Amino acid sequence: MHRAHTAFSLALSPMAHRNFATWLLKSGTSQKLAKATAAAAVRTYNSAAAEPFANGSTATYVEEMYNAWLRDPASVHTSWDAYFRSNTYTSPPNLAPVQANTLPLTAFNLGGGAVAGAAPDSKTIDDHLAVQAIIRSYQIRGHNIAHLDPLEINSPELPGNSSTKTIYANFSFEPSEQDMERQFKLPSTTFIGGDEASLPLKEILNRLENVYCNKIGVEFMFINSLEQCNWIRKHFETPGVLNFSPEEKRLILARLTRATGFEAFLAKKYSSEKRFGLEGCEIMIPALKEIIDVSTELGVESVIMGMPHRGRLNTLANVCRKPLNQIFTQFAGLEAADDGSGDVKYHLGTYIERLNRVTNKNIRLAVVANPSHLEAVDPVVQGKTRAEQFYRGDQEGKKVMSILIHGDAAFCGQGVVYETMHLSDLPDYTTHGTIHVVANNQIGFTTDPRFSRSSPYCTDVARVVNAPIFHVNADDPEAVMHVCKVAAEWRATFHKDCVIDLVGYRRNGHNEIDEPMFTQPLMYQKIRKHKNCLDLYADKLIAEGTVTGEEVKSVAAKYENICEEAFALAKTETHVKYKDWLDSPWSGFFEGKDPLKVAPTGVKEETLIHIGNRFSMPPPNAAEFVIHKGLMRVLAARKNMVDEKVTDWALGEAMAFGSLLKEGIHVRLSGQDVERGTFSHRHHVLHHQLVDKATYNSLQHMYPDQAPYSVSNSSLSEYAVLGFEHGYSMTNPNALVLWEAQFGDFSNTAQSIIDQFISSGQSKWVRQSGLVMLLPHGMEGMGPEHSSCRVERFLQMSSDDPDYFPPESDEFAVRQLHDINWIVANCTTPANLFHILRRQIALPFRKPLILCTPKSLLRHPEAKSPFSEMSEGSEFQRIIPDNGPAGQNPGSVKKVVFCSGRVYYDLTKMRAEKQLESDVAILRVEQISPFPFDLVKEQANLYKNAELVWAQEEHKNQGSWTYVQPRFLTALNHSRDVSQSDEPMSFSKTTTNTTTTTTDHTNNESASETESKPWLSRMFASNKSDGSTDGGPATGDFNAAKHFDLKNVRHDFNRPAGNAAAPGARISKTGRKISYTGRAASASTATGSKAQHIRELNALLNDAIST
Ligand SMILES: Cc1ncc(C[n+]2csc(CCOP(=O)(O)OP(=O)(O)O)c2C)c(N)n1
Ligand SMILES: [Mg+2]
After folding, report:
1. Which contiguous run of DSSP H or E holds residue 610?
2. C-beta separation of 618 from 627 below 8 A
3. How many CB atoms lie within 10 A of CB 679?
């Protein structure tokens, strides 16, 4: 096993070294002793191991002395006696109570000249200190030489290629036979004695060797809590902890048989299919089952798991007990019977409720669907777990827990692991302990650990949160089961993370088709000769008489039969159903709902007044609760607004939250500094100026029977926190979950979550989410950073077809929302913010909302809304029309400026300065995606004679332009000429509004017939030179050679999209077009200096407004 860049050296301080020297450093080469001292050795790369002996965590040694001195001052060396008498030493507050079995040193016949009952001589004391040092060294460093690697591959960087040799080189000593027989008093920091207070040295070394240097390597002495360290010592050191009953052994064997049999069965039936098998680490399946069994026994009812590709199918089959036929069907390449583009089989999630046969308790198991992006699922699982704990009122995580499974390379390589770990103890993000299982096959694709990490172990990241790490040889099933049991008990006791490092190997290549000998020839020569874990364990159990060879065979045959039956059943299936693979079913949410009916979002005025008043009130005990004077002014200003029945941004947001809370909708807002708000506008949490941690959150006190409101400043991570909130939002549709970026541009560090989960979760995994991303956005002369949330990137991922005008009907808006993957909006009024947030819940389905939010508008005097725009009868406005002189007399308007976001206020100001209110209309596109084709058409028709422009402050290659341009054209012309080979944006079946024919798009002709054909086949099949079409080959039968005829390929396929002015542009029926005004294209998001910004802004405003 690779424990990278290891070099052993003596770790003891000079003082400790002297203690060793006086007694231990004698000649000889006893294997046992050499190993014992190995535990005192340390790798220079291990920070904990490099601690000076009497410092930090080694202080327990001094405590031991102190305890002894308290009981009997004469029992310690005179120098210690003098030291303790001087009162310089203070015992730590968490000093462990002295163990029941500890006795004063004087009680022992210590040999070496000491007489029982008499004060021991200094040699005796030194000898005892040396033994204590050895015990401690085993505890700290035993894992360095434990037999963790089933392949026994030593790191080539170890001098002499063997840790033992290295140790021999550094220490040549051996106590005499007589010394080995001497009794030594055991300190309170070891449990190896069981009921014994002292043991002969020989036995001490034996036991330590077994506990710390055998098949388990425990890394825990870096943990700051003495209580936790003692707990771990007890669970590994107590004699007999590794004894298993015959029944337990048979259960392990049966589980291992299934895990191994499953992979073998797949290998037999689908030999050329990738499945990312678990061979070499099959023990992971019994390991997970053991964790679940013990946790269930301890009260857990629901386990949420996140895992990568490796062993995923096996986990679904043998841990979750997902019906085998459903798994086998995934190999058949069948069409889906339901919505969703689907995903490869080793990414799909699942959710199962079943009886745990071992504990006889019901349990829910979910495996969260995960993308290929390794570890990206970690925070999602944590968010989902937290949400489930929240909805169950499980405040301590006793009922719901998460298990995260990792690959060794990914665990140390992916930064999101660290980011997720750092959520583990935060009050609003903790899941009260996660068990991490690393399927450590000592390789990542084709890369050896020595080239993929700089830390000794792949698990070192866990040390940052004081998580104990249990390394274990995956070829020793009983050692693995013990470690799993301890991990589950640890989690139930301390509610903190821990890690199980299952050190195995990978029997095949990265997948079953890969050739591993290309890159790891020596490792694979060893693997080829290595017996699998099941055979090794079966041999052991047969040899010790626990099972017979016949029994072993019959268990295997029985499981193979089960597989065969399921295989036969799978063959009868004609379709796969993605709904079978949902990880977060929302039972009852969709049933009985009209999928196109949106509940009203306006609320009674009295509700607005009530919320407004509460939100502007200091705490009820205001006299005692000292609020900052500046905040008193903020509250007073809020109160004024309520009295005047207007709202600013913060109040509008609070109205949305408050009214949803009133309706029983849980609201959770999370992100960096969200409590106050980055721009100091929100102030949801008021802080007592004189009392630490005394806070008041008025939104939690709106109504006595309201839903809970949670607002929490997060750790400074976008990737993990956004993933977490996405996971949270998956759990319950009746909650408004919002994540706010500090500035919109920071969201790109969470790009994997955006790309792999938020934009595509529904089409891949039939999973909906109503998550809101609040992204501060606006070019305000603050330089290239902090300006843009890169709205163009979100828009590029929107799945509405630029060339398709959906059929107009009363349900136009909701149908569009239903069909799209997410909503992108940039609101300019608090009222619209209020409505769009409430609409997230009013919709009969859930869609993520990407909301550009303002900065300067938070305090802009015009960016206010009257209550009337939020009260009953009002609703979200996808486009805000011009209600001024231009709007009242549209026929004489010369120019219509369409825009989105805060630039609207600059445009109106410029228009007023130029006194063009009657000549220029300014329209705000508030919902950018799905594009409001119907309203754009309506407004354009209203201003029949006007020139149309799109004005944006973002650069031309950024902002909304590239998204809106082709859609404007479709809306304006309400028709288009289109070649038959044009394709819809998305091939997901959720995009039911696609069309591919030459017909006018105003009719609602479904493309159901052509939709199911591969787009390439349609493209080539439809364009024969003689003008005929052959309809294309049947799905799945596409023959590129037959159809790939260059003569038939349309050469203008990559033409500039939809710009009527550009050469090759589409011919429109009406000929109306829209042109661009704004900044030129740029590589950067904003201009660097304020002066340049103002110059550019003025130019664009002039350009936009001039007629
Ligand atoms: C973020 C990310 N980068 C790269 C990959 C490509 N990739 C897939 S598996 C793999 C190796 C993973 O090694 P390890 O974590 O040890 O898991 P193993 O396959 O060995 O079980 C890589 C690099 C990926 N899936 N995700
Ligand atoms: Mg690996």
Report:
1. helix 605-615
2. yes
3. 18
Percentages helix, strand, coil for the chain, rounded to the nearest 5? Answer: 40, 10, 45
Which one of 445, 749, 752 would you pick to mutate in the ligand 1 pocket, going by the greatest count of ligand atoms within 8 A of its CB? 445
Query: Comparing C-alpha atoms, which of 327, 318, 328, 379 is closest to residue 349?
Result: 327
DSSP classification of residue 1085: S
Which ligand has the nearest atom to the CA of 509? 1
Ligand nearest to the CA of 374: 1
Residue with tokens 């390794």: 374
pTM of the model: 0.84
Q: Could you give the CA distance from residue 1090 to residue 655 in angstroms, rounded to a whole number?
A: 35
Which residues, by Cβ under 5 Å, contact ligand 2, an ion? 407-409, 441, 444
Nearest-CA neighbor of 717 among 777, 670, 668?
A: 670
Can you give the pLDDT at residue 339? 66
What the block records as the tokens of 834 is 């209020």
* Residue 344 in contact with ligand 1 by CB distance below 6 A: no
Residue 105 carries which DSSP code? G
In one letter, which amino acid is 13? S
Is 439 close to ligand 1, i.e. is its CB under 6 Å away? Answer: yes
Q: Rounded to 10 degrees, what is the CA torsion of 775, 778, 780, 781?
A: 90
Q: Which of 883, 993, 879 is nearest to 934 (CA)?
A: 879
Whole-angstrom Cα distance, residue 848 to residue 797?
A: 12
Closest CA to 65 of 179, 182, 189: 189
**How much distance in Å is there from the Cα of 413 to the middle of ligand 2?**
11
- pLDDT at 506 (0 to 100): 97
Closest Cα to atom 12, ligand 1: which residue?
A: 444
- Whole-number pLDDT of residue 86: 58
Would you state the structure tokens that stand for residue 767, as one six-digit string? Answer: 């999973």
Contacts of 182 (CB under 8 A, 6+ apart): 110, 111, 112, 127, 200, 201
d(CA 235, CA 294): 15
Q: How far apart are CA 1085 and CA 32, in angstroms?
A: 66
Would you state the pLDDT for residue 36?
A: 35
In this prediction, the residues of the chain whose per-residue pLDDT falls under 50 are 4-59, 91-104, 108-114, 155-173, 975-1068
Q: Which residue minimizes the CA distance to atom 15 of ligand 1?
A: 407
279 ligand 1 Cβ < 6 A: no
DSSP, res 729:
H
Residue 419, SS3 per DSSP: helix
| Cα–chain center distance at 1049 | 44
Distance between Cα 408 and ligand 1 center (Å): 9
How many whole angstroms separate alpha carbon 1075 and alpha carbon 652? 34
**Ligand 1 atom closest to 752 (CA):** 1
**Tokens 């048979």 sit on residue:** 250
Q: Which of 374, 512, 514 has most ligand 1 atoms within 8 Å of CB, for mutation?
A: 374
Helix/strand/coil (H, E, C) string of 554-617? HHHHHHHHHHHHHHHHHHCCCEECHHHHCCCCCCCCCCCCCCCCCCCCCECHHHHHHHHHHHCC
Distance 406 CA to ligand 1 centre (A): 10
Q: What was the pLDDT predicted at 63?
A: 65
Q: Which residue, by CA, sits nearest to atom 13 of ligand 1?
A: 444
**Rounded distance between C-alpha atoms, residue 362 and residue 367, angstroms:** 17
pLDDT confidence of residue 838: 98
Question: DSSP 3-state assignment of 611?
Answer: helix
633: tokens are 């002014």
**For residue 311, which ligand has an atom nearest its CA?**
1
Per DSSP bridges, beta strands 686-687 and 400-407 are unpaired
User: What's the pLDDT score for residue 164?
Assistant: 39
Q: What are the residues whose beta carbons fall under 8 Å from the beta carbon of 82, sequence distance 6 or more? A: none
- Name the CA dihedral angle for 964, 965, 968, 974, rounded to a multiple of 10 degrees: -120
Who's near 721: CB < 8 A, 6+ residues apart? Answer: 379, 419, 423, 429, 670, 671, 672, 714, 715, 739, 750
Going by C-alpha positions, the residue among 262, 311, 295 that lies closest to residue 440 is 311
User: Would you put residue 537 in left (φ > 0), alpha (ψ -120 to 50) or beta?
Assistant: alpha
